[in-house]
Write a structure and sequence with these properties.
By secondary structure, this protein is mainly alpha-helical. Helix content is 60%, strand content 7%. The strands form four sheets. The protein has a two-stranded antiparallel sheet with strand order 1-2.
Length: 468
């Protein structure tokens, strides 16, 4: 039978497992919020460890904490920042109270871990208190949003790396397939020839733009309200602490963080998260679009477009032998849809803030950090399991160009619109290719036609100036 300790709070007394690092506030939150049934995001816990460490070091430097308590708490904060105390953060990702349950779970764990470090038993809050020591000169309302911004910046840095790697993989494919002429399509219909390499280059460029946007997100998140305590007025926090805490956090994280000039405004409003989420949604739309293109170009493969072959990752059907599905683009598409839904959730949650505080930051945190994870994981699997193993079907590309009517547009330069249109009509009536009609009617030589559809000619930017 597990031993228990008794803890008291405003509402009464509860039993807590004797050796547990959490306390009564966490116990109540566990009962109150069985919602998402998943824990707080690990990146937020790590960031909370860093924020608490900054506050602790500031308070110790200013003489507000005894040295022995400060040393023990510093070790506990470092352990949390390193992810070693994640298992003790038990509150649900979604919770009422603007994140107070998370903040208090963190406070209790740090206090009890520090007690263990100095040889005391968890729950001995006369020695080290979750509130009087760990939470000294702080509020949920400044530590939670600060931790969220730190976590988001760190995760965005990882996402940027993942997007950059995806860009590089498409650039590799661009070089590999630069010589392959294929049909370009608009409205899902044959349009004019293009090279497969140029299509790959376009995908690389789109994700390169995403990488730049993500890089710039740090500017949106670097301003924090740490030191503002409850509503941004710095109530109960010494002036020196307010100025020094952010300096400590900047040193600990290595991030270019800055204290908001207007702490009240920074506590009231969280539109920066909406802006960043919009950038994440832009990345999701590119992942969605490119994944759809890859599925379309690889469709068939024998009775569809089949211009590229995607790596076979797993058997595709429990009833159709030999079928292999484009499971990676499909999975990435679903992740992109989820990010788009999270973006709408974040916008609604931020807009629901009231007066001096937004009580829905736990939802913002969950949606934002999970969006970043989804995008990072999507870029990784799309690169490793799809783009890196993508193989062009050169024969199919060539046949599609020769058999289709899209190539007739290239004849306009030499023949004019009317004659080119006549060639297209003859090809349709006689069930012949454009090339066959042009050669049969002796409109062009084989060399001239082939030159017209060469990779260099297809990708030439505009028409050359005519000699006067």
């Amino acid at each position: 039978m597990t031993n228990h300790r008794q803890e008291k709070d405003l509402l009464g007394t509860l039993s807590v497992p004797a050796d547990a690092l959490h306390g009564i506030y966490t116990e109540r939150a566990i009962v109150n919020f069985p919602l998402a049934n998943r824990p707080v995001h690990p990146a937020l816990i790590t960031a909370f460890g860093q924020v608490k460490l900054a506050c602790l070091q500031t308070n110790a430097e200013l003489g507000y904490l005894p040295d022995d308590i400060a040393v023990a708490l510093q070790q506990a904060c470092l352990e949390m920042a390193e992810g070693r105390l994640n298992a003790a953060i038990l509150v649900d990702a979604l919770q009422g109270g603007a994140g107070t349950s998370t903040n208090m779970n963190v406070n209790e764990v740090l206090a009890n871990r520090a007690l263990q470090i100095i040889g005391k038993s968890p729950g001995d809050y006369e020695t080290i208190s979750p509130l009087d020591h760990v939470n000294l000169h702080q509020s949920t309302n400044d530590t939670y949003p600060t931790a969220l911004k730190v976590a988001a910046i760190e995760q965005l840095n990882h996402l940027e790396t993942c997007v950059s790697s995806l860009v590089e993989e498409f650039q590799i494919q661009e070089k590999r397939t630069a010589h392959i002429v294929k049909v370009g399509r608009t409205q899902m219909q044959d349009a004019v020839p293009i090279t497969l390499g140029r299509e790959m280059a376009a995908y690389a460029e789109a994700f390169s733009r995403d990488r730049w946007r993500i890089y710039k997100c740090q500017e949106r998140l670097r301003v924090v309200n740490l030191g503002g305590t409850a509503i941004g007025t710095g109530t109960l926090a010494p002036r020196q602490y307010i100025f020094k805490a952010i300096e400590q956090l900047r040193h600990i994280t290595g991030l270019g963080l800055a204290r908001a000039d207007n702490l009240v405004e920074a506590t009231q409003n969280n539109d920066a998260f909406v802006e960043v989420s919009g950038i994440l949604k832009a990345c999701a739309t590119n992942l969605f679009k490119v994944s759809s293109d890859l599925r379309f170009l690889s469709s068939g493969p024998h009775c569809g477009i089949g211009e590229i072959n995607l790596p076979a990752r797993q058997a595709g059907s429990s009833i159709m032998p030999g079928k292999v599905n484009p499971v990676i683009p499909e999975a990435v598409t679903q992740a992109a849809m989820m990010v788009m839904a999270y973006d709408q959730t974040i916008a609604q949650a931020v807009s629901m803030g009231n007066l001096e505080l937004n009580p829905f930051l736990p939802l913002v945190a969950d949606a934002l950090l999970n969006s970043i994870d989804l995008l990072a994981n999507s870029c990784t699997i799309l690169r490793k399991f799809c783009v890196a193993g993508l193989e062009p079907n050169e024969d199919r590309c060539c046949n599609n160009v020769n058999d289709g009517t899209g190539v007739v547009t290239l004849l306009v330069e030499e023949l004019g619109y009317q004659q080119a249109q006549q060639v297209a009509q003859i090809a349709k009536d006689r069930n012949k290719t454009i090339r066959q009609v042009v050669l049969d009617e002796k409109i062009m030589s084989p060399e001239a036609f082939d030159n017209l559809t060469s990779p260099n000619r297809v990708m030439r930017l505009g028409l050359p100036e005519k000699k006067k």
